[in-house]
Amino acid sequence: MKNDQPFDDIIELIHSVPSLDSAAFEKTYQISKKFDLSYKLGSKNTDIIKVLAAVQGCVPVIKKPLISIFAGTHGVAESIFDEDIVNIAKEELKAVSDGSSGVRGIAKSLQAAFKVYELGVEYPSTNFTKGPSLSEKDCAAAIAFGMEVVAEGADIIAIGSAGLETNTAAIAIATSLYEESPVDYFKGTHKKNTLRLKNTLRLKAVKKGIKRNKASLNSPLDILRCYGGRDIAGMLGAIIAARHQCIPVILDGFSVCIAAAILHSINEDSISHCFAGHVTTEWGHKALLERISLIPIHDMGIGIGDGTGAAFALNTMRLNCEALSTIIEK
């Protein structure tokens, strides 16, 4: 970072995003009228095509998709689990990286690049019940690491999350960002007693963390560093870097969308290249999407945010592009 304050360059990037391509949007709009795309493909798919055009600056095309999964270990997990949290995180990450999860199979079927970005899985962030998860320097470094996603050369990026207790961190961020009660995010009944117990511990940890860090929350990025951990910071970096490179981004579940929400709270236009791949059954996800003005492409009842829903949405978006290409060529 060139400035004395690590977040200065990040803030500058968030506020200096390029304009979307209005000419490409208008051209695609005229194409949609000429070929009656709303009738042939549906109004929702037509809207997707027009926004894609505005982001990419041309009649949209998807040839080099990337499905990126961010993973980290949140120190707050030690308030939830009795076992070694690094070992738990490694096992969860293995399920994604070694191909036993659905998202990897979808990526293979779509012939999409698939990459897992590990941000300190073996080095947990500080338990936010005891203090900020990250220093400003470490948070800025994780954001910068996430920005490297654009170096893959993809023309669209889907983002999922596979971190340990990332959702708990995301809930702490949401409650601080929107001044809400954390209780709302742990509503619902669960058949499994173990899950009810874990959620009780999560709620207790979030409440304690909010009380512990309240005095340090001077900006959205402070909220990120106090609760977010390296993986959420990395996802934020990926999103803002893609915005500057005119690369569309498909967001997956609640924890991915909270990274976008932090950007949105600083500059709403900084996430105008983002699509909500789907709405999960996670508490608060639907309301969060409404807050950041994103309409989910799918609602399939998926309960996790590991990239599966974003991968399904990627397929929908690519099919839209291929359908458009065929229609205008004929």
Side by side, the strands of the main sheet go 2-1-3-4-5
Overall shape: it is globular
Structural class per helix/strand content? Answer: alpha/beta
* CATH architecture descriptor text: 3-Layer(aba) Sandwich
Return the domain count.
1
Instruction: Give average pLDDT, whole number.
Output: 94
Total number of beta strands: 5
CATH topology annotation: Rossmann fold
**How would a textbook summarize the main sheet?**
5 strands, parallel
Percent helix range: 40-55%
CATH class: Alpha Beta
Number of helical stretches of at least 4 residues: 14
The oligomeric status of these chains comes to single chain
Q: Mind telling me the CATH superfamily name?
A: Nicotinate-nucleotide-dimethylbenzimidazole phosphoribosyltransferase (CobT), large domain
Beta-strand portion reads: 5-15%
Low-pLDDT sequence parts? none
End-to-end span in angstroms? Answer: 51 Å
Give the topology string: H per helix, E per strand.
HHHHEHHEHEHHHHEHEHH
Radius of gyration: 19 Å
Describe the overall structure:
- With 330 residues, this protein is of the alpha/beta class.
- The termini are far apart.
- It is globular.
- It contains 14 helices and 5 strands.
- α8 (166-177) runs antiparallel to α10 (220-227).
- It has one domain (8-16, 64-310): 3-Layer(aba) Sandwich (Rossmann fold).
Question: Can you give keywords for this protein?
Answer:
single chain; 330 residues; alpha/beta; 5 strands; five-stranded parallel sheet; Rossmann fold; 52% helix; globular
